[in-house]
């Protein structure tokens, strides 16, 4: 599999980029875009492509296109919208190798992980293609017997969707799928770090029959703040969905207040991962590897604080270190690579700072803990033991390949440590005690709980958090509620 980028100079210092993915001599997925800012592979620093640097005027044009298309698209029968989404899903699956190649090229994750992401991303289109015809209202008995009362669920309108780089395919389809199923049109702000995936998905949407103006993609790097402000303040945007940091979410929420938009925010996490004394340690280890090290720790639901009962603490540490020693860090296209680079040098610096802070305050460094000579974006898989509450990892999301282990003595102590956090996205724990499983699941202050499992993402499951991890749910039967409004109609007879 190869990625070929062809650039053609045009008047006005613009570029037209042809992105062609091919296997042997047979090109399969090809699309073009005018280009302005450079994207490089975080593993090799080689040029991957150039994308349009949209400004405020371009963003407003995209919003107007979505607004114009809304008048027609909202009246498209649900079953027809369902067929369009299913066709988009099928095209993603037909082009799975190409899409995976693009993801690995621009965000560095191993090709096998990128392939898994494409399947996951496509599953949201399939799920919401099935939900589109099932947007039901209600018939309600009015207090006045001479009146009849019904509710209608209608599309909220034009939606501004701001997506992250770590899952550049899945975070788009998880938002666009329910929006289109509900009859909305969208303007998607693609992540500056991984814009080509968004453009490829838009090309497949076009081929699937998504009408012109229904799905609009904005790419920008230096102008990200400016176009984000347009999306959050423009009166034609009725709904904003954002996945990203809590700090940015607060800023966007403040901007959205000027026009009182409907919001759903999936923000930062600091997931606790609890191993009780009666846990199956092999199961817990598999859960930890799935939760902590996926995408080199760069997911919002990664385990950030690993709390282990003192009676099994030393044994579990041995298992973790032995497992980590089998990992292979390298280029995402490498045959033996299990973990790729971090997205950029700022991410590496944050991980390095967290590790140094912990060690300076008494943590034991058992593996890794340093940058790797593979390139500026590589940091070794790291294991820290004897963590204490005063360390930065306790209160800040590391977003990197660092397993930080804390000992505890009682169930209540573990719950208190887990809940001692401003955010509440995901939490995990491992125990064979059925009563404890229900007790702890209800006690954890998070939006999602994994009990004896470390991978909780599923298109049929509601994804979202509480506290400063945001509000609203994506995926599942609840996901479409974020893109509809409820209208009451009362008639006198």
TrEMBL record:
Reaction equations catalysed: succinate semialdehyde + NAD(+) + H2O = succinate + NADH + 2 H(+); succinate semialdehyde + NADP(+) + H2O = succinate + NADPH + 2 H(+)
Enzymatic class: oxidoreductase
Domain Aldehyde dehydrogenase, residue spans: 39-489
The protein's annotated pathway: Amino-acid degradation; 4-aminobutanoate degradation
Assigned GO CC terms: cytoplasm
GO biological-process terms attached to the record: carboxylic acid biosynthetic process; gamma-aminobutyric acid catabolic process
Entries under InterPro entries matching the protein: Ald_DH/histidinol_DH (IPR016161), Ald_DH_C (IPR016163), Ald_DH_CS_CYS (IPR016160), Ald_DH_CS_GLU (IPR029510), Ald_DH_N (IPR016162), Aldehyde_DH_dom (IPR015590), Aldehyde_DH_Superfamily (IPR050740), Succ_semiAld_DH (IPR010102)
Pfam families assigned to the protein according to its UniProt record, in alphabetical order: Aldedh (PF00171)
Statement: the UniProt record of this protein carries the keyword Transport: no
Entry's Gene Ontology molecular function annotations: aldehyde dehydrogenase [NAD(P)+] activity; succinate-semialdehyde dehydrogenase (NAD+) activity; succinate-semialdehyde dehydrogenase (NADP+) activity
Residue positions of the active site: 266
PANTHER family: SUCCINATE-SEMIALDEHYDE DEHYDROGENASE, MITOCHONDRIAL
Protein family (similarity comment): Belongs to the aldehyde dehydrogenase family.
Protein name, as recorded: Succinate-semialdehyde dehydrogenase
Organism per entry: Tolypocladium paradoxum
